[in-house]
Amino acid sequence: MVATPRIAILPSAVADRIAAGEVVERPASAVKELLENALDAGATAVEIEVDDGGRAGIRVRDDGCGMTRDDAVLALSRHATSKIRSADDLVGIASFGFRGEALPAIASVSVLELETASDDGAGTRVSVAGGTLTGIADVARRRGTTVSVTALFSTVPARLKFLRSARSEWRAIVDAVTAIGLAQRAVHLTLSHDGARSLTLPPAPTLRARVGGIWGAPYADALLDVASVSGETLVTGLVERPSDVGTRTRRVQLAVNGRAVRDAGLVRAAEAAYRSTIPAGVRPSIFLDIAVSADQVDVNVHPAKAEVRFRDRWAIERAVEGAVRRALGTMASASVVGLAVAADDRALLRRAPDGLLFGGSGGGDPTHHLIAGLDRQDGNATDPAARGGVLAAADEPIAVPPLVQLRRTYLLFEQDEGVVLIDQHSAHERVLYEQFMGAMARGSAAGQRLLFPLTVHVGPAEGDAFDAHRDALARLGFEIDGFGGHTLLVRAVPTPHPRFDAERCLRDTLVALTGDRDPGTAARHERLAATVACKAAIKAGDALSGAEMRALYVALAHTTLPAHDVHGRATIVRIGWDELERRFGRR
Ligand SMILES: Nc1ncnc2c1ncn2[C@@H]1O[C@H](COP(=O)(O)OP(=O)(O)OP(=O)(O)O)[C@@H](O)[C@H]1O
Ligand SMILES: [Mg+2]
What are 139's strand-pairing partners? Predict the structure, then answer.
């Protein structure tokens, strides 16, 4: 007896529908594919109209190169593409499309009509229903292509059932079009729903202009510029100020070589740059364009082309984190001293001797060498630095304005734009945090040896915390021997300032670190630096001498992110002259 074969090649119509499931999952995916085709055709303007969340109809009209009659018919068969000829062409591909799959996939699950005319003038209309060609005709039309899709998924009831409400399908379409519009800014894009125009995006010279076109200029103007090169990777874009994070809708947009993509790893990298400037749990809005050389990225890894693969992901993630961090640093420092200080120059400045703040190694007034030359730079408007230029060299001192301590808690001073209050504890905490991070990165910090080692008894949880952070504590200058049980013998301690109570700081830190299961070294170091900084910093209520205040000011100006403390609370509050004038009824 001959068994009936169980395996059979599927008829191509069925295969097409299965493939379509991967390419067109919902109306938004059809819109995305059609828009990308229009862009690949070199369109300068694309008009998108959808009805009932795309469920009733989708029409995409472009002014691109169009197709001849033969090509238009061919375009609707599977694997017909003008964009690649061989697998080799996939490397470094610049077009959105390359599979020759999208049009036939959409056509197999809908009623599709394609009207197109290329430069040679003759227009063609091709009609397909459920994947079957139903007509070819001549039409008169301008150069370009219009694709109309109706009855989407009418041939696949299973998929039809999974469609969400018109509202949520529409939202997905808006998201898809917005993402492409942000990545591709030279094209004029319009999007309408049920006859009402919802988005009009004229060509935009910059990402900021595009973002402004979508969410309004005030929103766009509040974002910080990102622009950094790292090796072969160029990262540009816009990110939210730490103080705005969590107060508005979070938006995330990543484009790699002009292609809007999703990439959790890159988002994490960008967010890592915010660590210690915003509270845990809130996430910033980011809009980043990442340009890498084409052979560094593989675009053919996802059915809807929504993801890409990098050859050297680590390098790209590092570039993204560095770029965002630099952007945040520029903002923050500008807000303290009223100068735009380039991040790299500040890095130079931060190489100033350790113990900048209080009790520097030289003894006496720790700030004398910093304050001595202050008069040299009086911030007059012809100074390149004062004009918003760059603070040039490490030995160029920062002008410290007269400072007043209020309630033993705040430092008050005057700036061109208004009065500024610094919270002394959170400012100092920020300063120490960066010093500690620096110390851990360099792998050394000279602690001060104690004449009589200190014996500290801790509970089991604190003992575990000590074991987990032993190396990092050593890098901070804590020289400690664990004595089995729960006894620690402290031989040396860091000396961030004369009031520093090392034993108390160590105890509080270990308590704060108990149960800390942060896996990564970097995260653990940050936690430790933040905790020790918080415990070690001067407190509200500590009276400061003039020299101490000035040292704090200078040290803060040299940090990367001085506008926020390590918990994301404000370090600095500014009150503009106009606000004061308003409150005094002067205007
Ligand atoms: N709007 C358009 N203007 C001009 N030509 C188009 C347009 N849309 C599609 N085409 C042509 O039809 C071909 C098939 O399009 P389709 O979207 O199916 O595949 P693709 O874009 O090549 O690859 P992918 O499946 O990855 O999108 C394209 O290669 C292109 O030559
Ligand atoms: Mg395509």
Answer: 123
| Residue having the nearest C-alpha atom to atom 28 of ligand 1 | 81
pLDDT in tens, 501-523: 888 888 888 888 886 665 577 77
CA of 81 relative to ligand 1 center, distance in Å: 6
List, for residues 334-379, the tens digit of each pLDDT value: 333 322 233 333 332 232 222 222 222 223 332 322 222 222 223 3
Pairwise CA distance, residues 64 & 38, whole Å: 6
**Where does residue 290 fall: left (phi above 0), alpha (psi -120 to 50 degrees), or beta otherwise?**
beta
Q: What is the 3-state secondary structure (H, E, C) of 255-320?
A: EECCEEECCHHHHHHHHHCCCCCCCCCCCCCEEEEEECCHHHEECCCCCCCCCCEECCHHHHHHHH
Q: Is 145 in the pocket of ligand 1 (CB under 6 A)?
A: yes
- pTM for the model stands at 0.62
The neighbour count for residue 297, using CB atoms within 10 Å, is 24
Distance in angstroms (rounded) separating the CA atoms of residues 28 and 172: 6
Ligand nearest to the CA of 305: 1
Which atom of ligand 1 lies at the shortest distance from residue 23's CA? 25
Q: What are phi and psi of 232, to 5 degrees?
A: -95, 5
Structure tokens at 199: 């988005």
Q: Is 33 in the pocket of ligand 1 (CB under 6 A)?
A: yes
**Of 37, 99, 118, 142, best ligand 1 pocket probe by most atoms within 8 Å of the beta carbon:** 37
Which ligand has its closest atom nearest to the C-alpha of 23? 1
